[in-house]
User: What shape does this take?
Amino acid sequence: MFVVAAIFSAFVCFLVICILVTKIIHSRAEIPALAKRAVFITGCDTGFGNLLAKTLDRKGLRVFAGCLTEDGARTLREASSTRLRTVLVDITKKQTVLDAYAFVAANLDENGIHHSFILKCL
Assistant: This one.
């Protein structure tokens, strides 16, 4: 019984080490030419959208963060670099989506990033 427990413990330790090594490798992954890349994320007031916006900002991407409330946008701006820009958007209202599109398109041109890849799906 002791041998089985020892083998199981070794296997668990091996799995934990593999997971940690994989996490370290992925956290250091680099995306080439980050200064020429941008992303638009909705739902950035809180939760996953907020975390993703902060993470990509730290990695050097130009982030356009769509927030539902001014408080959420302000909090995110205070916790981020100048690469991150917030825009108020309610994805259930077509006009706010169009306004956000115009904001992103104008700011992409301003920074030497062209918006020819943006899909006009509205």
